[in-house]
Amino acid sequence: MKENKNQHVWRDYFSMLLNAGLPWVLMAVCFGLSMLKAIMSLALANQITVALKDYSNIKEAIPELWKLIGILLVGIAASVAGIHLQGIVGAQVDRNVQRYAVDNVLYLKTKDLEENDTRNFITRLTDDACKNSPFLIELTINEIPRIYYIIAAIIAVRKIGQPTLTGAMFLLIPCIVILSLVSGKITFTNRNKVQTKLAAVTAKLAEKIDDIELIKSYSTEEKEIKSGNEVLDELSKVRKEGALVDHINKYIKNMIWFIDVAIMVIPPTLLMFKGVIDRTVYYAYILLVSRFETYIREHLIVWVYLKEAQGATRRLSAVLNMENEKSVSAETAFNSGDIEFINVCFAYGEENVLNDVSFVIEKSKKTGIVGLSGSGKSTVLNLIEKFYEPDEGKILIGGKDISKLDYTDYRSRFAYLPQNAPCVSGTVREMLNYSTQREYSDEELVKALKDVMLYDDIMKLGGLDYQIGHNGENLSGGQRQKLGIARMLLSDSEYVMLDEATSALDPEATAAIQKKIDEKCRGKTLIVVAHDLSTIENADKVLVFDKGRMIAEGTHRQLKEKLPLYRDLVKGDR
Ligand SMILES: Nc1ncnc2c1ncn2[C@@H]1O[C@H](COP(=O)(O)OP(=O)(O)OP(=O)(O)O)[C@@H](O)[C@H]1O
Ligand SMILES: [Mg+2]
Question: What CA dihedral angle connects 238, 244, 247 and 248, to 10 degrees?
C-alpha cells in the first residue's frame, strides 16, 4: 500500500471531507458562536472600564453593571453552546468519513485486498478516520474569530498608550511558542512510541485469537503465552517510561506557565501602584491579555491537529486512492447470452495460472469444469464473477466485454457458491436471505432446507433462528455446503456457478441434491466445478483443465472415450 508522502495530501484531505459530506449549517452556527464569544470577550474588557468607574451615585453605575453582566452571560452562553455543537460537528464529520472509507474499502478490487494486510485497514477505518475533524473545526470554525480577537486585543492594548503593556503582551508570544513546542514535542514523541507498541500488541493478539484453534491443536499454548507476554512487557516498559516523561513535562509546563502569569500581571500591577493606570484599565488589561494568552496557545495547538490530520490522511488515502470497483464507468448494459473466454491469460503473482484459455459456455445449458487440483478451475469462476481481470485476452457475455459492465449489476445476475461454502455470521434465516432479490417467507426457507436434506438438522439445532457463528463455524462442513446450496436454490439468478458444492457430502446426499439443483436450474446457465464427476455426467458440455490450460471439451461420454486423464478422474485415480 503506497502512502501519500507528497504535496497531494491536502488535496486528498479536502476531497475526502467533501466527498464524505460536511454538516455545513451546523458548522456555520458554530462559526457564529465562536465569533460571538470573541466579540463578547472584547466587549467585556471595554465595558469593565465603564462599569467599574468611580461613580458618585450608585444608581448611575447600575445600568452599566447590568450591561456588563449581560455581556458576560452572552459570552458564557456562546462558549458553552459552541463547545457542545462543535462536539456534534466532530462526531458527524468522523461518522461521515468512516462511512465513506468503509464504503470504499468494500468496493476495493480483490487483487488489491489480497496484496495488502487487510488487518491494517481496521485502525485506518476506526482511528485514522476520526483524526480529521479537530483540524477542520479549528480551521473553519475557530481560527478566524481567534485571529480577529488577537488583532483587536493588540489594538485595544495599544490604545491604553502604555508601551510597557504592549511590550509585555508581545513578550508573551515567544514564551507560549517555546512552551507549546517543547511540551508538544515531548507529548508527540511519547504518544507515538506508545501507539506504535500498542499497534504491535493489537496485531499480535488479533493474530493469536484468530489462530486459537490451531494453537490448541498443536498444543503450543505455553509458547504463545510466553511470546504474548513478551510483547505486553515491552508495551508496559514504554508506558512506564512515558508516564515519567509525562510527569516531568507537566512540571515544565507549570513552571513556564508561571512565567506567563508573571508577564501578564507584574507590569500592569506596577503601573497601577505608580498611579500611571487606574483600576479599571488594570482589570480591562488583565481580561484582554489572559484571553489573548489562551487564544495564542489554542492557535498553536492547531499545528498539532494539522500534523495529526496530515498523518491520518496519508494513511487513509493510501486505501481510498486504490482503484475501486465503483470508479470504473459502466458503458454497456447487461446482455444475457453465452459466456466466452478468448485467449485468456491470468496470473495472481508472477506465474500464469491460466494460459491462453478459450472456450464457450452456452446460455441455458449445464457446463462442467473438471481437472486436477490447482489446474485453475476456481480461477475461471473468479474471473467470470469479475473478482479479477484477465491479464490478456477477453471475457464476453452475450457478445459484450464484461470489463465494461457495472460490477454490482453484473454480479447480481449470478448465484455463485464458492469452494468451501463461506457463510456470513448470523442466523440460518439471515444467511438464507443474505443478498437475495427479496425476503423469503419461512415456508419457502423450510422448503429449500428440505430440498437439500438439511431441515431435520437445523430443527434439532434450534430452527431458523439458530446462530451459525463466524463463517458458519457452528455447522459441520457438509451442513455449511447444504446451507449454501439452499440459498442458491432460492435465488432467481439466471446464471448459477457451483464450485465443488457437494464435496463434503456422502454419495447418496450428493446425488439427491444434484438432482434438485438440476431441476431448479433447468433453463438457466449452470456451471459446475466438480471432482466428483457423477455430478456432471449429464452436463451438456464438460471443459477439462490441466496446469492452467483447457486441454479438451466434450460430453462426459466423449471425454471418457478419448481422454485418458478424464478416465482417471472418473475412476478417482488422480
Ligand atoms: N488468491 C490466490 N493467490 C495466489 N495464488 C492463487 C490464489 N488462488 C489460487 N492460486 C493459485 O492458482 C492456481 C490455480 O488455483 P485454483 O484455485 O484455480 O485451482 P483449482 O483447479 O480450483 O484447484 P482445486 O481443485 O484444488 O480447488 C493454484 O496454483 C493456486 O495455488
Ligand atoms: Mg478450486
Answer: -120
378 lines ligand 1 (CB under 6 A): yes
Q: Which atom of ligand 1 is nearest to the CA of 382?
A: 18
Q: Starting from the CA of residue 113, give the closest ligand.
A: 1
Distance (Å, whole) CA 375 – CA 111: 19
Of 344, 346, 348, best ligand 1 pocket probe by most atoms within 8 Å of the beta carbon: 348
pTM confidence score: 0.76
Q: Enumerate the H helices of 353-427 as residue ranges.
A: 377-384, 407-411
Are the CB atoms for 528 and 367 separated by under 8 Å? yes
Please measure the distance between the N-terminal and C-terminal CA atoms of the chain and give it in whole angstroms: 40
Q: How far is the CA of 24 from the centre of ligand 2 (A)?
A: 51
**Confidence band (pLDDT; 50, 70, 90) for 435?**
confident
Question: How many A from CA of 330 to the centre of ligand 2?
Answer: 29
Q: What is the pLDDT of residue 21?
A: 95
User: What are the pLDDT digits (tens) for 163-172?
Assistant: 999 999 999 9
Note the pLDDT tens digit of each residue in 330-352.
Answer: 677 888 899 999 999 999 888 99
Whether residue 78 is predicted with pLDDT greater than 80 in this model: the reply is yes
> Which protein residue's CA is at the shortest distance from atom 7 of ligand 1?
348
303 residue type, one letter: W
**274 versus 228: which is more confidently predicted?**
274
User: Is the CB of 315 within 6 Å of ligand 1?
Assistant: no
Segments making up each domain of the chain, as ranges:
339-571
Domain with residues 339-571, CATH architecture: 3-Layer(aba) Sandwich (3.40)
